[in-house]
Amino acid sequence: MQNTQTVTHRLQLLFAAKRNILNIYFTAGFPQLQDTVRIIRALSAAGVDMIEIGMPFSDPLADGPTIQQSSQQALDNGMSLRLLFEQLKDIRQYTDVPLLLMGYLNPVIQFGVENFCYAAQQVGIDGLILPDLPMHEYLSEYKPVFERYGLFNIFLITPQTAEERIRRIDELSQESFIYMVSSASTTGAKQGFSDEQCRYFERIAAMQLKSPKLIGFGISDKATFEGACRYAEGAIIGSAFINLLSQSTDLETDIQQFVAALR
Amino acid sequence: MILETITSPFQVDEKGYYGQFGGAYIPELLYPNISELAENYLRYIQSPDFQEEFNNLLRDYVGRPTPLYFAWRLSEKYNTRVYLKREDLCHTGAHKINNTIGQILLAKRLGKRKIVAETGAGQHGVATATVCALMGLDCIVYMGAVDIERQAPNVARMRMLGAEVRAAMSGSRTLKDATNEAMRHWINNPTDTHYIIGSVVGPHPYPDMVARFQSVISAEIRKQLAEKTGSELPDYVLACVGGGSNAAGAFYHFMDEPSVKLIALEAAGKGVNSGHSAATTALGKPGILHGSKSLLMQTPDGQVIEPYSISAGLDYPGIGPLHAHLFTTGRAIFVPVTDEEAMEAGLLCSRLEGIIPAIETAHALAYLEKLNAAPNETVVICLSGRGDKDLQTYINWFGDRLKK
Ligand SMILES: Cc1ncc(COP(=O)(O)O)c(C=O)c1O
């Protein structure tokens, strides 16, 4: 791989060193406004490999009920991008795991794309997942700004994504990873994989893509995590973790146990 | 040809934009569906067999052309010449069916077996349930829980027609939330389902496609006006704007006629600055919701503000990208109308013309109070729908005043 940059990014280091990568999503400002940093530290201490910090939005189109509710709760708690960057300002003193911001485009645009990227870089964010930012718009308008601030844009593929488009995404994802959506669905914890899903995972594995892949949407427990890791470099858990947070009375202990149970 | 392509600064460009507004800001999950539509919709809808089927159904099933009626008592009262384009006389009682006929024909050609739709007032839901019955396709309609309550007659109609009505329980439980749920449903069922969106909103090509299907309204107005007045062009065209489909249809063939003043009426609710409003151009800023960039009511943080209007069909925090473009270029003016002004206009139209309008439509009628058109000027108002669905709301609002 051609790489003119001298810095090696956290994401590249991680994928060079590990398999069975565990990436956990949570919504910033949930369950309590001030839990953001606490959760990142607990996840990091429990040994997760990557963390996706959800930026809550009022109308999260790609999300199922669990993440919708956590987003609404976070907004009701008073969460905002300004506050999130404030909360994260010392986060790199506590963790070295790659951190991604995930959310929808409108709050980012209102914050100002350049301001947003600058703030993300300042606190030590590695990449962005913006499901409603189309590839075409990314390439024509956003890519130079993201790159100026060292932020990788993570692309999604789904069972319906055409092969040609997957190849295109592969070209754009070699220094980061491809977010492989496990089925045609919104986010949400599910039990087990169907035969159809397994055929899709096999089809993608057989494409011998150059970029690492993480499988997300519907990964909920040890069985689905291990299942996903048979076809990809790792997997992403979101809704199942949000469910845990909403029931938790002791975040540190519960997070420790949740992560331990997956390995 | 009704669905022909026109070159104009007010038509969508090849990238799916009206000026700075529009586009297709959709999750990758919907990319195959949206690109399938974008690549094929013009070829399908401009093919001779589609044209023939569309025109036949509009004539024999919907009952087009709808009359352009000279409203002489309203004309007398306001001392000008008022014409009502009677979309309320369409089958199912509103303009919405012009679009659902077009989209169901498209869905059949795309090989889809199931239809999902959102609805606010229930008119689009009824129009969708109707064409699904006609074509034998399964139909699921998402409707905000608040709207299920206030538009009960339309819920019953949808069920009678065989559609499944699902309540949207998130947010303000109105049209915005029903749209979220319909889009999520499509994400979860991308291969066998077509999403029939109900207004000129959503990702490209929906705004253009819906505008084309509704453009029959202004095509007919031009012809009918020429027969009645000797001129195809009125001085004013008035229409209410929720997402903006009846307005897009009523404005369509006048957008490139600078002498025709286009006036869009949006719902001010309890007043533009009351905190209970849906007046998007007055309160909104450019933003992205439901797949397109347009004007959007939002907080400084970019969170969508829950709108309010007494009219379920106008209770939406955005407008279609065409309208955002018409607004920012000054081609159309947008005026807020309060609940109270609309309700009075609804009563007045009932008593003077014997036509009970939908509360959405009443917002357009209300502007006659302020228009001050000259006696020899021609005002066309898009009477987008009938008010049967709103009787309970009218009764509750007017109380004892209806007893005399
Ligand atoms: C009668 C009527 N008019 C207008 C509207 C508003 O929609 P649009 O702005 O797309 O015409 C509705 C929506 O439900 C309606 O039922």
TL;DR of this structure?
The complex is a heterodimer of chains A (263) and B (404). Chain A is of the alpha/beta class.
Note down, in words, how this protein is organized:
- The complex is a heterodimer of chains A (263) and B (404).
- With 263 residues, chain A is α/β, with parallel strands linked by helices.
- Chain A has a single domain (10-262), classed as Aldolase class I (TIM Barrel), CATH 3.20.20.
- Chain A has helices at 10-17, 35-46, 65-77, 81-87, 105-111, 113-123, 135-148, 163-172, 195-206, 222-229, 239-247, 251-262, and strands spanning 21-27, 50-55, 99-103, 127-129, 152-153, 155-157, 178-181, 213-216, 234-237.
- Mean pLDDT of chain A is 95; it is low at 1-6.
- Chain B is α/β, with parallel strands linked by helices.
- Chain B has 2 domains: 17-60 and 96-210, Rossmann fold (3-Layer(aba) Sandwich), CATH 3.40.50; 63-93 and 215-403, 3-Layer(aba) Sandwich (Rossmann fold), CATH 3.40.50.
- Helix content of chain B is 42%, strand content 18%.
- In chain B, helix 4 (96-109) packs parallel to helix 5 (123-135).
- The longest helix of chain B is centred in the first third of the chain and has 15 residues, at 31-45.
- The mean pLDDT of chain B is 97.
- At the A-B interface, helix 3, helix 5 and strand 6 of A face helix 8 and strand 11 of B.
- The structure holds pyridoxal-5'-phosphate.
- Residues 94, 120-121, 123-124, 199, 240-247, 313-314, 358, 360-361, 384-385 of chain B line the site of pyridoxal-5'-phosphate.
- The site of pyridoxal-5'-phosphate (PLP) has 21 residues of chain B, from helix 5, strand 9, helix 11 and helix 15.
